[in-house]
Amino acid sequence: MKEQRHSDFQTPPGTLTYNPTELLICTAARLMPDNTTAFIGTGIPMLAASLAQKMHAPNLVTVFEFGGTGAILEKLPLAVGGECTFHRAVAASGICDIVETAQRGFIEYGFLGGAQIDPYGNLNSTVIGDYCQPKVRLPGSGGANDVGSHCWQTIAIMRQDKRRFVEKVDFVTTPGYLSGPGAREAAGLPPGTGPYRVVTNLAVLGYHAESKRMVLLATQPGIPIEQVFANTGFELLVAEVVEENSPPTAKELQILREEVDRDHLYI
Amino acid sequence: MKEQRHSDFQTPPGTLTYNPTELLICTAARLMPDNTTAFIGTGIPMLAASLAQKMHAPNLVTVFEFGGTGAILEKLPLAVGGECTFHRAVAASGICDIVETAQRGFIEYGFLGGAQIDPYGNLNSTVIGDYCQPKVRLPGSGGANDVGSHCWQTIAIMRQDKRRFVEKVDFVTTPGYLSGPGAREAAGLPPGTGPYRVVTNLAVLGYHAESKRMVLLATQPGIPIEQVFANTGFELLVAEVVEENSPPTAKELQILREEVDRDHLYI
Amino acid sequence: MEVIQSGIGELIQPPDVNAFREWNRAKPKALIDKRMTEAEAVSRFIRDGDYIGTELYGTVRCPMSLINEIVRQGITDLRVAGQGVFELDMLLADGRVKALDVTYIGLEVYGVSNCLRREVESGRVETCVEWSNAAIAWRFKAAAMGVPFIPVRSMLGTDTLKYSAAKVVKCPYTGDPICLLPALILDVGLIHVHRADIYGNAQIDGISGFAAEMARASKRLIISAEEVVSNEEFRCHPDRTIIPYYLVDAVVEAPFGSHPGEMCYVYVRDEAQIREWVEASKEIETAQAYLDKYIYGVSNHQEYLEMIGQEQLDNLNRMAKRETDERTTP
Amino acid sequence: MEVIQSGIGELIQPPDVNAFREWNRAKPKALIDKRMTEAEAVSRFIRDGDYIGTELYGTVRCPMSLINEIVRQGITDLRVAGQGVFELDMLLADGRVKALDVTYIGLEVYGVSNCLRREVESGRVETCVEWSNAAIAWRFKAAAMGVPFIPVRSMLGTDTLKYSAAKVVKCPYTGDPICLLPALILDVGLIHVHRADIYGNAQIDGISGFAAEMARASKRLIISAEEVVSNEEFRCHPDRTIIPYYLVDAVVEAPFGSHPGEMCYVYVRDEAQIREWVEASKEIETAQAYLDKYIYGVSNHQEYLEMIGQEQLDNLNRMAKRETDERTTP
To answer: Which positions ≥6 away from A129 have C-beta within 8 Å?
Structure first.
């Protein structure tokens, strides 16, 4: 296994094909440094963490809400409490211990999803429409609010379109920068925490240091900036230099397809 | 072992000799019913619980502060966290779990000691003299305040004299009825809790249902009521009928000396 | 310590810690054989309108055989702590839920719960109150401690807090705003474990989710266990006891009690069965047909397992065994 | 939620949970070999004036080899969470303690601590603040949760509360008075365990006292272990890990590290040695002579054990072995 671990991302010779899910996974994986802690949910973050462990971050410390710390991600859990989430882990405890560990400041990265996101990174996974007369009742916060409250840096992974990237979310399930600079601290959330990145099928976005509004940092391979704007329902800031992400490498795709998700449960 | 368990206390033929410690142990043991929970410290309560288990209360559930629940008291611990406190126990957890179990109302009896007690059963184990210029610095609350706050009924075990039974304790380490009726509830302590008995070398005392002041219920074998008064530094109420305790039985003494404390660590 | 904000959600179950103390005092402390069937446990200890909770999570170590029995016995108007997947879907599908403290109700990788959507969007679930996952677990923790609230730093600044029954106060030590969650005391808790003795002492392998907290937050507690073992197992290893017997009212022996969910080291989840429900749950009629077949169509858990078939169960065992071997031989 | 009463005791260590978060963020999360000697662990991680705490309790699973090294290195002006027996007596006997959050400091069956008396009655311990045993453990629990306080129903109505730094507030849910304890964050925690790996993952057998809470409440954490075992032990049984490696700064292999106290299932307490201290502690001179012989007279824990003698250590092992056999064969 050792020889398959890389710390660099090489662009393969020739053109590779990959689907949007594979792109999201590879992009998210690259954001996970070695020897850090990451609060992982099921789905794409899980696949990204597994890929990162097999590429550049063999000692990425995965933390799962219901008790797993430091699992080796050999198989993909379909549930956030499944055996895979504490397989060969250093500790298997419970939800209070895990979220309190985050509350104590031990968890660097947290991964989030949602049905809607606003310019300040606030996320909605509770209802579409009016809360009391919901058009769609979504699952609710789950661990998202906890991750968004306690992790130092959160990374949202979403598909990007105008229904999802909105000026105002219908319900703030999970705190981003709330109403803007200073709002998290004023609300009592731990200082220095907040949204860090949004990974989408079109782009990677960050947040402006002062205004805390969303900033376009990089486009996904082959995506023109205009397409990102056209799929964003609010005014998007733009970094001085907008990078274009390198596409998934042959190595990344091979590991993803042959090791991470060999049963093709997700990809 | 089974044939040595009795649920009645028989007075032996002839006169037995026993020392004051043995008397305290036997008197306290008789107060522990079968199938109840009792918060046990080291020393006399521990010996009494062991004796009770071997006499009339084989299923007395002992609870020790640092984590032992339901230990079979085969040996005597010299420390409140010793192996004997969770020997063949049903659970070995930690101090928070144990005291929270008491806080949730699961522990019926709690045993206490102290350097001073007042008519309302308030106990001092912190200082003799002024707190800021102490004549004697005592060990402090330890678990006593927790036991006195959360257990339904507390039993103090003390030697009785005017230095110890005082109108006002120098320091209220552990709450009895505080300043009298309603004071515990007003302070926020759980309703329905409070001092139940005081076992001394001279007497067994209780508390008046309304006034919450200490009441003489029974004298120890051969002790005249006057001797109890003479060794009490405050006005003592007296029950309508003051019983005289029956002395330790031959069976109790035999089990105490040959099984409970066969190495004579305490007696 | 002023109250800065109060959530407008209903406090479905008020944190009456004194009444809880009285209740706990009256529970028997004797070692009593508490074994019984799912049918007896449910009929003796769960009533219409009760506030119930399940641990761990829909497809992982979840008391499915007990949930199925609740549906079978027609218990209704339930108030529920809603951290759930498969188990809450069964109750929602059959319209048994009146009020929800909801954190997450969905099908994880398979998306939103159509049962939740139908019941909430139609108003048949009359009351929804929002919380985070940890908030629900912490509310159990407060109850387990025997205190009426617990301070946390989740939920602050969000609509999740606004539509909860939490309060924000100014911390008297730091001066910063902090969220107080009210203790959540259950009428009935349902927990599935790896093994228990006849008195109710229980052990869990692997992650323990929120079992310790919920067990201690329940007025009545029904344990189902893959295996009932001797009391000796507990007396020899008292540090493995996560639930002591005096908390427990009923012990139900339920092999494959978490099916179609998984039980770590014992069996993996039954993906085919789960997918069958995911499909069935999409429409009222097909969901009802699923219930008719797998719950109403059998009279107990044993018959349910017979319908699943020994071959499939053996298969799920075998796959878990393989995981366990990999665990110990890297 | 009004503050009804504030204890007049000094808040020796304020509950700065935000600074604690920053500290924890900076701790390395990599798997690093943290093995070192007592001498190295103490000199690298403990400084004059630090606020320290030990777990469990003076004569039971107590980090005595670390305490002896603190004395040997002359670390002083310590502020200490004082739930202790033998270990705090050593520090008090040598005048190393400046401030005490005190719950119980005594010799259990052997009565009051003469060292405590001398140091407090003379005013050499400048600050004493009162708490109950559970209050100290709960203060660690609050820190372990990462919140500035925790509500409890201990201490209410007493002088223990008056001379503490606790506060009484009106509960915003029940209206009843309730006690709030400030989180206690240690500069250094010292915990002795049955086994650890080289990274700091640790297991404890039997009762766990307040190890889980204190480990999580410590900015720097020194673990001493009877045995250092392979990481594989932990990966195969992750549910046995009570302290995960990332909390730990130093791992000290210390067989008989709790001597003269006991270590359940491994060795019993050394009653002769304890009595020797009980006698010696009565006067300053004899106490100092004891320290001269057993701490200053040896250069490390190994030499200390040699002074105790292999025969005696074997004997203590044998007696514990007998207890263990009795445990499993009733």
So the answer is: A135, A136, A170
Q: What angle do CA D140, D146, D149 make, to 5 degrees?
A: 65
Separation in Å, CA C23 to CA B128, C117, C158: 40, 36, 36
Most D CBs within 10 Å, among A88, A90, A184, A196, to test the D interface: A90
Distance CA A130, CA A170 (A): 7
* pLDDT, tens digit, 9 for 90 and up, residues B196-236: 999 999 999 999 999 999 999 999 999 999 999 999 999 99
DSSP A246: P
Angle at C52 between CA C108 and CA A101, to 5 degrees: 55
Asked if D54 and D62 touch (Cβ cutoff 8 Å), the reply is yes
Contact between D82 and D101 under an 8 Å Cβ cutoff? The reply is yes
Distances in whole angstroms, Cα of residue A153 to Cα of each of A38, A106, A176: 9, 11, 10
Angle between helices D133-145 and A95-103 (to 10 degrees): 70
Give how far B105 is from chain C: nearest CA, Å.
4
Hey, what amino acid is at C325? D
- Angle between helix D271-280 and D86-93 (nearest 10): 30
The domain spans of chain A are 16-200+246-260
Strands (E), C85-238: 97-105, 127-130, 149-152, 167-170, 177-182, 186-196, 202-203, 218-228
Close Cβ partners of C92 (under 8 Å, ≥ 6 residues apart): C105, C113, C115, C116, C118, C119, C125
Distance CA D24, CA A157 (A): 26
C96: helix, coil or strand? coil
Between CA B43 and CA B60 the distance in angstroms is 17
Nearest to C185 by CA among C224, C225, C149: C149
Say if CB D185 and CB D247 are below 8 A apart. no
Before A33, cis peptide (omega within 30)? no
User: Does the pLDDT of residue A161 top 90, yes or no?
Assistant: yes
Closest of A142, A158, A130, A173 to residue A232, by C-alpha: A158
Q: Return d(Cα B83, Cα C305) in angstroms, integer.
A: 44
Crossing angle, helix C271-280 and helix C284-291, to 10 degrees? Answer: 140
Q: Quote the minimal CA–CA distance from D263 to chain B in Å.
A: 8
The interface predicted TM-score (ipTM) is 0.97
Give alpha helix (H) positions in chain B: 20-30, 44-54, 95-103, 144-150, 183-187, 225-230, 250-255
Chain A environment of D15 (Cβ under 8 Å): none
pTM value is: 0.97
D310 φψ region: left (φ > 0), alpha (ψ -120 to 50), beta (else): alpha
Q: Pick the catalytic residue from A3, A22, A65, A226.
A: A65
Cβ of A141 under 8 Å from any chain C Cβ? yes
Tell me, yes or no, if D3 comes closer than 8 A to chain C by beta carbon.
Answer: yes
**Mind listing the pLDDT tens digit for each residue in C182-195?**
999 999 999 999 99
Specify the CATH architecture of the domain B16-200+246-260. Answer: 3-Layer(aba) Sandwich (3.40)
Q: Which residues, 6+ apart, have CB-to-CB distance to D175 below 8 Å? A: none
Q: How buried is residue B4: exposed, middle or buried, by Cβ count under 10 Å (0-12/13-18/19+)?
A: exposed
**pLDDT at residue number D324:** 76
In tens, the pLDDT along A193-221 reads 999 999 999 999 999 999 999 999 999 99
Distance CA(C153)–CA(D223), nearest Å, equals: 29
Pairing of strands D149-152, D177-182: antiparallel
